[in-house]
Structure formats: C-alpha cells, structure tokens
Amino acid sequence: MAEDPQRNFRSAYYEKVGFRGVEEKKSLEILLKDNPLDVEKLITFCQRFPLPSMYRIHVWKVLLGILPPHSDSHTLVCRYRAEQYEDVRGALITMRFVNEATHLTLLHLRMFQLENQVLPRCSELSTDDVDEDFLAIGHAMEELVDDPVDCYWLVKNFVSQFHHKFGDSIPHLPKSLEHFLSQEDNGLLTQLRTSGCLATLPYSLWFERCFAGCLPDTSLQRVWDKVISGSCKILVFVAMEILLTYKIMLMGMKPETVANFLYNMPQENTDAIVTKAIDLWHKYCGTPMHSV
User: Whole-structure pTM over 0.85, yes or no?
Assistant: First the structure.
C-alpha cells in the first residue's frame, strides 16, 4: 500500500515543530475504536511507534490476552480477572503461604507458582524456589501499574508469553549481540573479547529480565512495548547501544569492573540509549509496513 504523501508531510511538520507523535496518537485512537479490536494492527503500531502513555497499559492488556478483542466484553472480563485474583490470593492466605503484610511482588510470585502448579511444599522462601527474573519483572511492573490486579495479570502474562514465544531464542541472544556489534563496531567487540569482558556481560539482566532493574521506568516501558508486541530482538539492540554509548569507559575496564558498571549503569541518558537502540533495531530488522 502506497504511503500517503499528505500524511508524511503532516508527520514531518509535527516533528519539526515539536509535536512528534501527534499523528500516531490519532491513528492509535482510531484503532482502539474498532470492535472487535484488530490485534494485528495494534501489534504493527507498537512495532513502528512508541505507545502514548495514556493508552499503554490498555494496549498491553489486549496484546497479552488479558482483555479480549471484543471491547464490549472488557468490563465483564475485568471483573472475572479481579475475582480470580482474589480467589488465588485467598487460597494462599488459607494455606499460610502469604498474609496481609506480604510484599506485593512476593504475593504475585506465589500466585504465579500456584496457578502454574509449581508452588513449593514449604511456605518459607528458599533460594531454590525464588524466581529472581519474575521478581525483577514484577517489581518493575509495580512501578508502572497502580492497580495490583492489573499488575499481577500483566506480570503473569508477560512472563508466560515471553518464555512461550522466545524461550528457544533467549540462549542465542548473546551470539546475536556479537553479530550485530561486529557490524557496528568490530573494534569494540574485539576488545571486549580479548580482555575477557565479553563473558562477563550481564546477559541474564538484559535478556531474561528484559532490562528490569537496569533501565528506569520511562525507558523500560518503551523497550517492553516492542517485547510485548512480539520482538525479543529489541533486547539485543538495547544491549548493543549500551555498549556503544559507554565504549570509551568500558575499553579501559577489567572484566569484573565492566560487570559491576553494567549492573549499576548510570540512569541519566537511558531515554537516548533506547531511542538509538530502536533506530538500530529498525535499521537491521526493518519496519513493519502494515497499514495503521
């Protein structure tokens, strides 16, 4: 489908005068009026553009299957989700796995374990039954979502969808990072490899926790827009842009210092890092052209 020259002119004008995203917001509002919602078009929108904050959680819930495409069912489904939440929570209280003072993130982990039939026999936490990836993602989601019911369903479906869709791909993401970094800055890759730093990069933080605990909320949610809409490859480009951004510092560090720095990286310019990472992602992986 040919692009609309008039729309391109308007978009360029809005961006020039500081209103980037005006046209995209209007397009999303039109999509959200469809009944049933066209999930494929919503996915394409998320892959092409940043989600406006006022619609982000609603779109996430649709893409994660928490809400159905039929908008007239949303109120009823929300009620069922809330009832199920209270039923599972109540069961855990009865079994004395949690109480009213249990931290929300831990409560949601126990709920997730119960619903997936992997609840440990002992209610006391041990290193064997603590899913650190789930806790990290859950804590980050708490910062993004006010309602505990919405928070639980978003974490539960995010984690489940991520492992279902990308479980086989996750182990290969470090190699993908090496591949794309060799094309962007082979000198940096060579230095990281020969110094031993490449093996100490925080791959679990980047590729299993999806940068939860690494990026601040405003940056993290833009990365998660892409992950939720179907791309785990965006994680590779965020990692690559972090390495490119701090290249000069990293090339003078020892392996243990590199790992510590990246686990506790500065929070000041992460929005710019994510923006550049998304540009790199589009450069290497293309931009969906489905009409929105």
Answer: yes
